[in-house]
Amino acid sequence: MEKLLITGGQSLRGEVRISGAKNSVLPILAASLLNDGEVILGNVPHLQDVTTTISLLTEMGAILSIDEKMKVSINASSVNKFYAPYEMVKTMRASILVLGPLLSHFGEAKVSLPGGCAIGSRPVNLHIEGLKAMGANIKVDNGYIIAKAKKLKGAKISLPIATVTGTENLIMAATLASGQTIIKNAAKEPEIIDLANCLRLMGAKIRGDGTSEIIIDGVKSLSGCSYDVLPDRIETATFLVAAAITKGELTLTHTRPDTIKVIIDKLKNAGANISINEDKIQIKVNSQLKAVNITTNPYPDFPTDMQAQFIALNSIASGKSKVIESVFENRFMHVQELVRMGADIDINGNTALIRGVKGLRGAPVMATDLRASASLILAGLVAKGETVVDRIYHIDRGYECIEEKLTKLGANIKRLPQ
Ligand code: EPU
C-alpha cells in the first residue's frame, strides 16, 4: 500500500487552485443516467471516487469520454444494465446515488446495500422509504436493494434527518416522476444546489434547493447539458487549515468563499488574517493559534467533513477546546493517531476534549477515512521530524493531487511506493 512521507516544519506559501467538488460531481455524474442526451462536465476533479463512478456508469453501458483537461462527456442512452455491484459500492458508498436515477428513468435498479463504514453505521433507509413513498416497489435481498417502478409518482416526503445523498437521490428520482414531489427537511448543502442547477439545465423543474423545502415538478424527459462543477469547499477549507497550522500565507483561487463562511469565522477566531476577493481567499497567520470550540451539524453549520482537520489544528493551538461530532456516530478514528504524534485529546462519547500542546512529533500513522487522512497530513506538516501516513488510498478518493499541490506550496511530502 502506498504511503505518504512528510517531514514537518515548513510554512506553506504561495497560490493553490481549488478543484471541483467531489460531493457535487458524484451526484451530477449519477444524474447523467436521467437522460438520453450528452452531458458534458467541466471542473471535474481527478479523484479515485470519480474514476469509480465512471467505471460504474461504463459497466452499465454508458458511453464516456474524458479529455486531457478532465472534461467528461457522458451519453447514457445505451445503458442496459441497471446494476451497481457490491464490489463497487463497498469502495464508494456514493454509488447509492444511481438508485434514484435508474429507477426513475429505466423503471428498475439493483444496487448493493452499502455496509458499515469507518465513520458510523450510515444506513440508507431514508433513500428507500422516500422512493417507496413515490410508489416504488423495493425489497432487500442477498444484500441488494432491488427496486422496480413502472412510473414513479410525486409524493410529499418529510425526512426525519436532513440526509445529503438521500435528498439528492429523491430529487433525481422526482425529476421524471408524474406530478409534484415536495421534500421537507431537505439537506441544504451547496452540493444540493449544484445538482439542482445542473438538473435545471437538463430541463428539470426544481425550486427551493438550498432551503429545507424542495419542490420538484416531474417532466416527461430530460436532455443533455454542459455544466461546470462547483469548487470543493472541503478542499478549500483543508488548505486554509494547512496555512493556519503551518503559520503560512496562501492564496486559494477558483473557489467559492460563500460556501465556507462558518469555517472562515472559526479560523478568524483562531487568529488567522483572512481576506476575500470574489473567487479568491487569502490567509496569513503569524501568531500562535487559539483553540476554537466546534459542533458539527448540517449546512450552514460547521461541516463534519472538517472536524478531523480542526482537531489537528486545535491540538497545537493554545488553550483547551471541545469538538462535538453531531452528524456521525464514530468519526474520531484520527484522534488516537494524533495522540501518537503527541496530541493531548480525550474522547467522551461524541465529544473530543483537546488540550493544546507546544508541538507534535512525527510518527507512523494510519489513515482510516478520507478526512482522517487529511487531518494526519496536516499534523505531519507541523510535526517535528518524519510522519509516515499509511493507507493513503483514502486521500486519493477526495483530494486531487494532494502531494503535488502541497509540494508547490513548500511542504516536504512525498509518496512512497508500495
Ligand atoms: N442517515 C440515516 N438514514 C439514511 C441516511 C442518513 O440515518 O437513510 C443518517 C446518517 O447515518 C448520518 C446522517 O443521517 O448520521 C447524515 O448522513 P447523510 O446521509 O447526510 O450523509 P451522506 O449523504 O451519506 C454526505 C457526504 C459525506 C458527508 C455527509 C454529511 C457525499 C457523497 N457524501 O454523506 O461526505 O460527510 O454527507 O455532510 O456527499 C466525505 O466527503 O468525506 C464524506 C463522508
Question: Can you give a write-up of this model?
Answer:
This protein is an alpha/beta fold and 418 residues long. It has helices spanning 22-31, 48-60, 86-89, 99-106, 125-133, 164-175, 190-202, 233-245, 261-270, 307-315, 333-340, 370-382, 393-398, 402-408; strands spanning 3-7, 13-17, 38-42, 63-66, 72-75, 83-84, 108-112, 137-141, 144-148, 156-158, 180-184, 205-207, 213-217, 225-228, 249-253, 273-277, 280-284, 294-295, 320-324, 344-348, 351-355, 364-366, 386-390, 412-416. Strands 22-23-1-24 form a four-stranded mixed beta sheet. Strands 2-15-17-16 form a four-stranded mixed beta sheet, covered by helices on one side. It has a four-stranded mixed beta sheet with strand order 4-5-3-14. A hairpin with a 2-residue loop joins strand 20 and strand 21 (351-355). The protein is globular and about 65 Å long. The chain starts with a strand and ends with a strand. The relative contact order is 0.16. It binds uridine-diphosphate-2(N-acetylglucosaminyl) butyric acid. The site of uridine-diphosphate-2(N-acetylglucosaminyl) butyric acid has 24 residues, from helix 1, helix 5, helix 6 and helix 12. Residues 23, 26, 94, 120, 122-127, 161, 163-166, 187, 303-305, 327-328, 370-371, 398 line the site of uridine-diphosphate-2(N-acetylglucosaminyl) butyric acid.
